[in-house]
Every structure is written in C-alpha cells, then in structure tokens.
Amino acid sequence: MIVINSKDKRIKIGLEIHLQLSTGKLFCKCPDINSTGIKGKFTRKLFPTENESGDVDVAALQEERKNVIYEYQVTDNSCLVEADEEPPHEINAEALETALSIAFSLNSEVLNAVSVMRKVVVDGSNTSGFQRTAVVSTGGYITINGKKVGLTTICIEEDSARRVESGNNYTAFSLDRLGIPLVEISTAPDIETFQEAVDVAREIGMRAMLTGNIRRDSDAIRQDVNFSMGYGRVEIKGISKLSLISEALIAEEKRQKYLAEAVGILVERGGFNGTVLIDYTEKIGKSESKIIQKGIASGNRIYIGKLENLGGILKAGDYRIGKEIADALKLFSIGGFIHSDELPGYGLTEDEVNNIKKFLKCEEKDAIILISIPESKKDLAQDAINKRIEKLSSLNFSETRAANEDGTSRFLRPISGSGRMYPETDIPTIKINEGTLNRLNLDSPKSFDQSLLSFTKEWDISRQEAEIILATGRKKEFIELSRLWEKPREVSRILLQFVPEMERKYKRKLDYNDLKRLTEKIATKNYGRISLEIAIEQCISGKNIETVLMSDDIRPLDRSELKSIVENLRKSGDVKKENIIAKVKNETPRPVDPKIVMELYQNT
Amino acid sequence: MVQTEFVRGTKLKITYNGNELDVTYISKEEGYLTVKLQNGYNITIPENKITVLKSSEPQPVKKKSITLKHGNGIPISLITTGGTIVSAIDYDTGAVHPSTDIRKIIDRYPYMEEKYAISVREFDNILSENMQPNMWIKLAAVIKEELSKSKGVLVSHGTDTMSYTASALAFMFEKLTGPVVMVGSQRSSDRPSSDSFGNMEGAMAFSSTNVGEICISMHSGTSDDSISLHRGTRTRKMHSTRRDAFRSVSGTPIAKFRNKNIEFLSEYKEKSDEILLTGKLEEEISMIYFHPGLKGEDIEKISEGKKAIIIMGSGLGHISQSLFPSVKKVIGTGTKIVMTTQCMSGIVDLNVYSTGRELKKLGVVSAENMLPEVALTKSMYLLGNYPHEDFEQMMKVNMRGEILEREFLGDCY
Questions:
Q1: Fewest C-beta in 10 Å: which of A115, A600, B355, B357?
Q2: What 3-state DSSP class applies to A11?
Q3: For residue B401, which of B263, B231, B284 has the smallest C-alpha distance?
C-alpha cells in the first residue's frame, strides 16, 4: 500500500463560482437573451498560435484540433463581435459595476483600473480563440458559520459559446451564450468539508443575487471545484447545481481513494512499463463480436495490447483504471475500447480472449485491451493509454475534469498553465474613478439579512415575498414592474405566484419583456389585476403579444356594458344577491368589477 | 523614492494590500503600474499602493532560428511588406512580436512543405496606410526579380491600401510570367482565429496557377472554407473589420479555393513567357470627394502643382455647378480632371444630365466604371509613361481589366 503523509492528506477545497449577468453582453450591445432560433451558420478553424505550456499532452491535443472544423450558429442575440468579425466595443458599464458591487460586498480589494486579458482557449468555444477576462479585485472573504473563507480574485469575463453537438473532427456551438458577462469569484483552498463547500457557494450566490443583475437561467450559475486530498489538485468544471457540489466531491474523493489503492496494487506488482499496440485484425476478423465486426466494416483496425500488472484493477469492485483510460481515449474521439476485466463479453468468446492472452504472453496479473480505431490513430491511442497510466502511477492526479450531470466527472485536459494569457490590445485599460468606487461601495449589499430588511421596508411587501424575490434574482424585474405599475404587492403576487402557475399549466415560459409590456399597458390604462392576469394567461397560452395588447378581452367591462348584462340576467330570472357576480362573470371572459355589478344590481 | 520603473519582464516581489505577491513587471503609465500575476492576469495598480521588496532583471530570451527546408516543391517567393504573416506571443510579458517566420504558416499546413519550396524576402515592415507610390515602384522591381526565380509570387500586405498597391502594380506590369498574389489578414495572426493562415493557404495555391495578373487572395465569406482570388484592378476593401471585406466590385472573382481545389469562375489573362515592367508613375495626383458645401477654392488649392485630380462625384459623376469655374481654371493650367463616382458601384456617364454634359465640355475625363482608387493609379501610370495628349483616350482603353465592358444583373455590386 502507498503511504500518504497524513499532513498532506487533509482535504482542501476551493471554489470558482461563475455568475451570468443579466445586463446584456459584455463587449457589444447584444441582449443576453436569445428569442429566436438559428439565423445562420458559419464555420471556422482555430490555430493555436504557440504551444504555450510545453506540455506534451496539451500539444497532442492541439495537434489533433488542427483538423477540427467548428460550426457556429448565429442567433439574434449575436452580432459581428461574437462572430469575431468586429473588435470588442467598450466594456458594458452596468456589468462592470455589478462585478465591482459584488467585490465590495465580499470585502474584496477593488482595483482602480481594469486590464482586459485574452486567455487562449482553442476548443472552439470562443470564436476568437481566446476568452476576454479581467481581474476587478483581489482578496476578500466570506464568513460561513463563524469561519472566514478567503477569496483570491474576482474577475469579469465573457461566457463561452454553448456547445450544441460534436462529432468526429466537428463541433457545433451556438453564439447565444458567447459574450454574456460572467463574474468569477475564486476562493482560497480554505474549505475543509463538502457541506462547507455548498454553504460557501450558496452564500456567495445569494450575495450576488442581491445586485438584481444575475441571470435566471438553468446554467446561469456554474461552479468549478478545486479539490485535493494529497494527490495533486483536481479541478472539476461546470457544476450547474448547488446540490451537485457535494455529490461531485464525494465522487471525486472516492475516485481518488480507489485509484490510489489500485495504483498501490500496480506498484506492488512491479509497475507499468508501457504497452505496444499490435494489429490483430486478421486473427480476430472472424469473431462474432459486433464491436469487432462493426469496426472492421467501417475501415478500422483492431489493435490489442498487454497492460502489464493491471489485471483485476481496470474494473473490479471500486477499482476503475479502465474508465480512466477510456476517458483519455475519448479526448481523441476514440470510443471502441475493451479490456480484460470486462471479458469475456461484448460477443468475444472465452477462447478468443484466451488466444489473445496467449499471443501476448500474459500472466494472471496482466490485463489485455482491444481497441478498434483507424490505422492513423494507432500511435495517438497507444500514447494516450501509456501517458494516462504513467500519470496515475505517479500518484499525481492533478488535472482538469468536467462535471457530469450525475455528479461524477470525466477527464477533460491537463491543468492549464498560467502562460496562456496576453493583453487584449483592442481594449485600453479601464480606469474607474473614485466617485464611482465610493458609490458602489456604499450601495453594495453587506449581508443578505440587512438587504432583506431594507427591501421589505422600501416596497412594503411581506418578508417572505421579499426573501424569494431577492434569493431568486427577481429584484430587478420586481423593481422595474413596480415602478411601471405602482402596486408592489400585486407585482409580487404576479411574479411569484401567477406567472409560475400559468407557466406550469401551459408548459411554456413567459418572456420577461412581454410581461413588462403587458404590465405597462395595464398600468397606463388603469385596468387592474384581473386584466393583467387574463393578458398573461393569453400570452403564455400562445397568443401573439400584439393581439393580446389590442384585444378587448383585457379591457374591463364598463358600467353600461355591465348594466345590460345585469338587466338581461334579471329578465331571465333566478338571480339573487348571492349569485349575481358569478352569473355576470359567466357571461363574459372580460374583467368584471364586482363592486359595480353589486351597485347595479342593488340600484336598479 | 522607491524605484517603480523596471525593464519589461523584470520579476518582482511586491506587497499590495497587505499581501506579498510575485509578479512580472509590464509597464508604468501615469502613476499606475501594470504587473502580471502568476496566474497570467495583468493588474494595473497605483504605484503608491505597492512596495517593491525585490527585483530581478529578466533573462534575455533566446530567439529560435528556424531554417526553412527547401524541398523539391514548386518554387514560390513570398515578399513581405509589413503585413505580418505570423505574430509570436511572449507569454511572460504578453507582448506580441511580428515575425516573418514562414515555418509557422507551413506548420499549420504540413502538406505545403512537400508541395512548395518557399523563399521569403523581406521588402519592408510598414503599416499599409504608410505605403507610398514610390514604394510601389521599388516593390515592382523586387517582384520582377523574384518572379524570374519562381513560379509565382506572394506579397503579404496590410489590407488598408492593398487594393491601391495591387492596381498600381497591375498597370506597371504589362506582362507577367506567373501569378502575383497579394495576401493579407483582417484578424492579426497572434489570434487563434486569424484568417491569415487560410488566406495564405489559398494564396499559395493560386500562386502556382497559370494566371498572369496581379491578384488579391482573401476570405470569400465569414467562414474559413473558401478563399477568393480577385483581380487587382477590380477589388475594393468593402468593410473595415470583416474577413470577407474584399470584393470583386460588380463582377465575379477570378477563382475560388475550397477543399484544396481551385475553381475558376471567370476569365483571366494567362501568364506569358516574359516579364514586362514599366516602373514609372506620376506621383503628383490627388483625389477629391465631392460633397455639398465643397468650395471651388478647395479644388483649386488641392490641385496646385498636380498633374491630375480624381474627383469622386455624386451619382453619374456630378459636382455642384458652383464648382465649374474652378474646374475650368484647373484644367486651364494643364491639370487633368478625371470623374469617378462615389456610388459604391456603377458607371460614370456625363451625357445623361446637363451637369455632366457641361463638365464634359470643360474637359473633364470620365473614368467609366473604374473604381476611383483604380482611376488614381491608372492616371499615375498613364501620366508617367504616355504622352499627356493621349490621356483621355487611354483612360477609356481597358488595359488590365480595370473597366467592365458589361455589367450583369446577377453580379453582386
């Protein structure tokens, strides 16, 4: 067994929290919301300018990516800037101020000047081949259960393009997300438990929500987790739900623990000396295995290799070195990989497996692999397998991993060096004047409770409603609608109850801009809540907003209209004080003022 | 006074905001220091907020020299004028250095190493807005020299005045023994998304065809999948930033390069077996953009000492009647006045309206459907090499494809 220094074994966790802002995009005037589908497509290649880090794995990846074609889907919230056909415009002042406000709120030392950098990213997720990013503050802390957790930096950056689909040498992205401002808050590795990680993420998220400028989208808040337990630093990227943070950490701790154990077994047996892939296509050509036959039919060759000392630890119990190898191969779009811990299986008979073992002069402790790939990928695959096992054998598990939906993660790339940045020459250093800094500092939310108290008071709504509005990032919408229609309690009810209810009923979302237009109409016409509700329901049910706005359905019945209904009802008989309002309402889909109905009933 | 100015790249240990930081010094401006943090970010901080504890000068960076392998491929010459082919980034300091290292292009397209034997010649290193007519003459001489050694010549050039250079060269070279392909980029090559690699790949392919013209090779569209070859005398930069800024105005490009194949789209002049270069240009020529409010004295002032003036008139080639006396005066001094249109496309016709007919009577020469910048370079060429009395007649002669004899409805304008 490998002995780890117990001092190093302490778990250290750091978080990087990314929050999308609802201020419109960072370096152009495009909105952050895409309202239509795809407007067009174009394709690009990316050429990494330098092999910055000198890391062989990175170099190999870049080599591979030279041939990749990236397709971009143009959306109506993208312009020439996202298409990398125009230099970035001036930084979005509201977005920058929001980032600064968050920085002040988290006790971070705000810089007087912002230098925008280009961080080279050549996986196609940025049309330019780099992400624009800038530090706005350094240091800071947040207090969780009486413990101070330090912050390192707060940055403002562009979000990347959204990956839509990918295939062999081809990846498609949508430009809808590219350029949306992201505030990135990085903590020091001060976090010691999984629960603490969740608490820190939640608290930072809540604090940021108070600015009212955080987007409300399913992937508007994404967390990266840095984890170490003595085997190097692993960065897990893109955890979109708070609840998945601890799941991801539990899974990662388990992965590292059993990997370390498995590596211990490997080392005890004498270690790994590298495998050589041998073309075995002719010998296995007659196998009935579908994987083999499909591979050969598509022009692949079937390679086999001996993995010395790796028998029984590729996939047995909690040992999963096989998956580690598979992940490394997947990076080069190599999927067809079978190893002896899964054999016989996949249509391969025991005899066939034994023949391979014999052919490779395998001992009991050795494993074999079969891999179906084009001849051109043989060296790449062999290299990837050997590098992966060597890396694991060193018990340094440092790498960047991508979060899966189920809380697990997969190998993404080696940890990138720091050298991949250079200044964004199209944007001069942005100086922020003292007056702005003082104002932002003064206005920045210092704690959730304090903000809640003043918000509740200012708008005269219940504490519970205020809490939901603030915590779910609806502050900006609430304030805007309440200014249009000076009935904050009604606005709160519409926002928190009626709209979600209708959205559930019709399984459709209401565009905020539509809600704003409806509210404005109701407010200027002095129509009232019922009218707004009817308008909202019609909109959500699929009616065109223009039709709804022009429609008579939302106009309350006036006195004379009501009078004729009341009189008609009276003629038909069977009306009394108790049922008159219900009866009138039955007669019309339009809003009815019960007070007027009662008045008319009683006075005629 | 604590020292806060260092050589770029100096490693510093500083205290800022109570924390000790290891940083790399980048620059200092107006009391602000820009330093690079270890994570790669630059931060800009007021110098009075930091204390420098330690500094160590940067080590001189060894320049890698790469020799180009001369294979047995098609001999191609590349002349660089300052549109950088490749920029290298120094990630220590973030500085971007221009480089003429053709290896870096070849590296993108390994097949090129087999296919071509490329020799690089540095002509100059300037931004294209600083290009001058006397440099066109020198450049022409260099092209002639290089073309005599190779199958085709590439000229890397900044995009701003690339079409001026192309058309000037087109007039100076009556005959060419191979294609002369100008190539540039709209996204600088330090960016992974640069169009320079694709444009260069296309240009290389075009340079080994049997075209005998001065051409421009740039992106056909915003995608990286197609490169167009445009005639030097019919091309204009139509957009300040887009990759597909260059268009064959009112016509079709000569060819397109897609999936490593060249498809010819329109007629072109084939190469000949000799190079014929007339390396003379009349430089005393200027251009005036007509606008409401333009004064006669403006025209007179700019025309002083000029051999010709190109006017970009409105519509069919008009200027305000109030300018006629000045036009008459200028022509009276022997200066030629050529009329072009400031419309993006279309022909000048001085017969349709009375304004045009009067201008014609005054001796104004119509540039037909020549692009204004081409009318300029053609005038330079004509007045530098032909008797002045032949000027008007020669302007009407289609010498290098600069005039479209027929414009078609289907063509983009």
A1: B357
A2: coil
A3: B231
Same fold flag, B74-277 and B285-396 = yes
Query: Domain map of chain B by residue range?
Result: 11-56, 74-277, 285-396
Highest-scoring range by mean pLDDT, A7-21, A567-581, B323-337:
B323-337
Tell me the pLDDT tens digit for each residue of A351-403: 999 999 999 999 989 999 999 999 988 998 999 899 999 999 999 999 889 99
More confident site: B124 or A397: A397
> Is the Cβ–Cβ distance between B107 and B189 less than 8 Å?
no
A50/B242 CB distance under 8 A: no
Over chain A, what is the mean pLDDT? 89
| CA A471/CA A452 separation, integer angstroms | 9
Confidence label for A2 from pLDDT (cuts 50, 70 and 90):
very low
Average per-residue pLDDT for chain B: 90
Cα separation, A446 vs B22, in Å, equals: 31
Structural contact between residues B192 and B219, judged by C-beta atoms closer than 8 angstroms: no
Length of chain B: 413
CB distance B71 to B113 below 8 Å? yes
pTM of the model: 0.86
**How large a percentage of chain A has pLDDT more than 70?**
94
Computed from CA positions of residues B73, B78, B84, B90, in that sequence, does the dihedral angle turn out positive or negative?
A: positive
CATH 3.40.50.1170 corresponds to the domain B74-277: yes
Q: Which residue has the tokens 């290098």?
A: B400
- Please report the ipTM that was assigned to this predicted complex: 0.91
Rounded to whole angstroms, how far apart are CA atoms A393 and A411? Answer: 16
**Of B142, B136, B211, B217, which Cα lies nearest the Cα of B177?**
B211
Q: How many helices (H) and strands (E) does chain B have?
A: 10, 23
Strands A170-174 and A147-158: unpaired
Residue B32: its H or E element:
strand B32-36
Report the SS3 class of residue A449. Answer: helix
Class of domain A270-395: alpha beta
Instruction: Flag if A43 and B16 touch (Cβ within 8 Å).
Output: no
**DSSP, residue by residue, A174-186:** ETTSTT-EEEEEE
Q: What is the CATH number of domain B11-56?
A: 2.30.30
Residue A203's φ and ψ, nearest 5 degrees, are -65, -45
What integer pLDDT is reported at residue A464 of this predicted model?
93
Q: Residues A380, A381, A383, A388: what is their CA dihedral angle, to the nearest 10 degrees?
A: 130
Q: Name the architecture of domain B285-396.
A: 3-Layer(aba) Sandwich (3.40)
- CB-based contact (8 Å) between A366 and chain B? no
CB of A83 less than 8 A from some CB of B: yes
- Which of A128, A138, A421 comes nearest B94 by C-beta? A421
pLDDT tens digits for range B167-218: 999 999 999 999 999 999 999 887 889 998 899 999 999 999 999 999 999 9
Which one, of A101, A91, A97, lies nearest residue A140 by Cα? A101
Lowest mean pLDDT among B65-79, B233-247, B264-278, B320-334: B65-79
| Among candidates A80, A109, A423 on the partner chain, residue whose Cβ is nearest the Cβ of B94 | A423
